[in-house]
Known about the structure:
The structure holds 2 protein chains of 2 kinds.
Chain A: E1 3-9, H1 18-28, E2 36-42, E3 49-55, H2 59-62, H3 66-72, E4 78-82, E5 85-91, H4 95-105, E6 110-115, E7 118-124, H5 127-133, E8 143-149, E9 164-167, E10 170-178, H6 181-190, H7 200-213, H8 218-228, E11 231-238, E12 242-247, E13 256-259, E14 263-267, E15 283-285, E16 293-296, H9 297-300
Chain B: E1 3-5, H1 11-19, E2 29-33, E3 50-54, E4 66-72, E5 86-91, E6 107-110, E7 123-129, E8 143-148, E9 164-167, E10 178-181, H2 185-197, E11 209-213
Parallel strand pairs in B: 1-2, 2-3, 3-4, 4-5, 5-6, 6-7, 7-8, 8-9
Antiparallel strand pairs in B: 9-11, 10-11
Amino acid sequence: MCGIVGLFLKDKTLEPRLGDLLSDMLIIMTDRGPDSAGIAIYGGAAGGKAKVTIQSANPGTDFVGLADDLEKAGIAASVVVKSTHAVISIDAAQLPDIRAALSSIRPNTRIMGSGESVEIFKEIGLPKDVVARFDVRAMGGTHGIGHTRMATESAVTTLGAHPFSTGADQCLVHNGSLSNHNNLRRELVREGMTFETQNDSEVAAAYLTAEMAKGKDLGQALTGALDDLDGFFTFVVGTKSGFGVVRDPIACKPAVMAETDQYVAFGSEYRALVNLPGIETARVWEPEPATVYFWDHDKAA
Amino acid sequence: MPVFDLSQTPLRELNSALHTLGAGANDTEFEVINPRGHHAVAVGIDAPVTVEIKGSVGYYCAGMNDGGTVTVHGSAGPGVAENMMSGTVVIEGDASQYAGATGRGGLLVIKGNAASRCGISMKGIDIVVQGSIGHMSAFMGQSGHLVVCGDAGEALGDSLYEAKLFVRGTVKSLGADCIEKQMKPKHLAKLAELLEQAGITDVKPEEFKRYGSARKLYNFNIDNADAY
């Protein structure tokens, strides 16, 4: 089943409340999937800086002295530890180097996501526990997406949780199941993409990353997904400045959207949206099958 | 008039109050406030009660309704009035997928649009949609009427049995074995009756086209005997 949510803010005065609003939306969706939960928050880009979110099964050892060890490896970094995750801030220019450095100095850590704006937190457990563990409510930002999982296509592990991130500042949450993911994964591997799991949704994320790397924008990449992905899906996707939604042509996975002057919101069900400000007068609709919806802060400006 | 505030009262209290009404009960007008997208609001009604729901509901609202009159002053999630037996359900806003699915009787009125699979496997229910409907509507519909004042999506009436379909706007495509049929005086009379019941006065029965089963898919064709 799975529950997915997304919130794209147009009104800057709401930005400090992004984590709080998104947490409520996700927690209401708990009964759509209790296996694991995750959230991606786009906190806004600081010029020339990048963030890398990593995860460890042994944060008590892996995160100790991490900044010092990165320094010795030639990467000046500051580290904020949140439970099993740590957010490493570095110069954007060193983003290509840090993956190799981490695999050398902290081989047991996993990169959840990286980019100028995004931070990704996901773990096994209920949304309320995951949200509390990472103090998501205190986080501000421009947009974010969340997922609560009922596992079907791969194991219940931290890495099998959503959102999946396969490119800088890109991430995806998925409700549904893909049927051509094994074949598509082989093709993407041949194109140079790397995969962490056997999960179908990771293939969808990697597909969009690969398409955008070829020069497509998010909307064009999502349109391509309608032709190239087979199976059931409602996707909500984030990029550094954008937010997109697409459903497969059969559209049996539920979706509700709401838009006001202050935000665009997505929920698997209307219940997820009821605490948003001004929802009573929002334009509420069900996204059409096989139709791409996307919003972009840069293009709107 | 009992009022249930679903932001304060568990849903089960509302539904069990609806289910425990004795024969001849007088206090049969219920109001529900703050439904906030709850699932299964007012399911399993089996008495001639009136339920006014002030807001939008989630899955399966008024499911299995048998004799009640339920009005949703908002929109409804998937499966509204699923398997209705008798009575009336009115949605002032939009309805999500499979509205009125498998319904055996009664009247479902949707004043906005309905999404995909509206009236799927309908078995006697009458559905009147003032707006448009999505794809695969009336799939395998067996009996009853589906009236659409707007447009219909892809594959209308796929694998249709004997449900009668009336669409005023365009049909994106017809499903397997669904064809346009002649509108006869008895169909116009039935259409006028359904529009009146739904309170729709600004459209005329003559503006609709009728669709039904070509009866080639569900009837055994003797010419195909060699294939078995």
